[in-house]
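This section describes the prediction task in plain terms. A model, or a person checking by hand, is given the sequence of a single protein chain and must write out its three-dimensional structure as a string of tokens. No templates, partner chains or ligands are provided. The sample shown here is typical of the held-out split.
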Amino acid sequence: MIVLGINDGRHHNTSAALFRDGELVASAEEERFSRIKMDNAYPHQAIDEVLRLANISLGDVDAVALANLPRNEQTPYSDVFFKQVYKLSKTDKNLRKYFWKHQFDRFTRRFRGREKAQNDVLAQKPTYTVEHHLAHAASAYYLSPFKNEKVGVITLDGAGDFSWGSVWVGEQGKLTKVAHFPHIYSIGLIYSAITVYLGFKATRHEGKVLGLAAFGNPEPLLTRLLEHTNVDNWNELFTSKLANVTLGFNNPTGQAVIAELCAGLCKEDIAAGVQSFTELLICNWVKQQAKELNVDSLALAGGVFANVKLNQRILDLPEVSNIYIHPNMGDGGLASGAACEVYSQLNNGLAPVFKQQVYLGTEITKESALDALNLAGLSYSEPNDLAKQVAKLLADGKVVARADGKMEYGPRSLGNRSVMASCSDPKINQWLNKQFARTEFMPFAPVIMQSHAKRFFPDWNDSHIAARFMTITYNASELAKQQIPAAVHVDNTARPQVLRQEDSPGYYDVLFEYEKLTGIPSVINTSFNMHEEPIVRTAGEAIIAFQQANLDALILGPYLVLKTS
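The expected answer:
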């Protein structure tokens, strides 16, 4: 059975995913083709690409899974949402205005379905819609390593289908809903509001707030936020003051509330305050959920779980033994989640296959690399000892990009579209930030051979599959601080990619040779893209980014390109 999953534009990061006989065989986001960061246009190109990668046509597709409900099916979720708005509006004029302003749309959306597929063949296929948070939950559960046990499944994001979070139990290949939470109480939107207040872009730069938080003091913002929070009641989490923020995180009303709460505070303390607020509320709640559901393994998805420090705090909870964060935890992962759910439904709960690697996108082959190099007029070599030569360059302090094989799934570069540099000199961070026009306080992440990971990150163990995908931080050991200081943040944490040889042999070989030369089994791994651009997809895009960033060397397929001047 072939199921095509589509996230078609309700939110950012439109995408497509293809399941064949229960295995995720291809996935891509439209942004990688349009070159528009977090593009929400209909994913025509992404759909074409996943079909091409699977070597099939639309006619071969058995079913189409659409993430997010059509408007006429959102009523149960919108009713809960507006019930909460109405309750809070009794004491707040802004919320009263919001409530009455949206009643006409609330009524008419009951008669508005989803636009038909923008393709005649697609329109004729059996099509199923999957609620936003069910799609997130399915991506986390069905593609996790936990399907042989009872697992708690949690989704948290900004908003989707009138909700910002959900809780499920995954057991015997099926998901059972426990709770949904209306987005008027979205911690994710509070975080986005402060992201905007600090001068960054919502849904794009929350990671910068996380990086900045390590430099600040969470007080007094933490206390100020908690004064307007019902910590023990997630069904009525915020007072009307914070509800004004979640309903307009980017408008003057919401930003005025944030300005009042942040008055007199520096940027670092503001970032630290919202990060501590997020960790405190979510960790306390997750602890409660684990106890009530009687689970100690958790599968997580949704944009909130892009917060790697939060993920570390969750794993540290005594009630939690292990967590899995879907590698494409944001809305780009909705296409695969919707396809997972539909596949399971059509196959009587038969669970999709756990995917232990995420190289699922456009492939740079020897032929495509050669064509791009010749078109660009670049000199290159094809060394038999490519890994050794690259390791020597890295040991000499050079910065090397790698673009080879299939593109990674999700927001993290995992070696096939990565930039590598030595971790031993902290000054490299300044150079990389300058070349890629990135924010100076953001930490760079390391890739490390699995056989050495425990020595550098004592809390890691080989059951922590999340660490393969750079979705969690760990406290760094003294050895890590000595040998890879450039990858250790000011708060003594790092976000490693723990690499096995079978995950990416060519990438691993570079690390292996580098360790033989230096005694250090780790280098910096940062995404191969210029600032505010999506990660490179093709060989041609890799060459352009290599030249723009003025890097020392480029691995392009089996070829090595050196900077000429």
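For orientation: The chain has three domains: 2-70+114-143+329-354, 182-325, 361-562.
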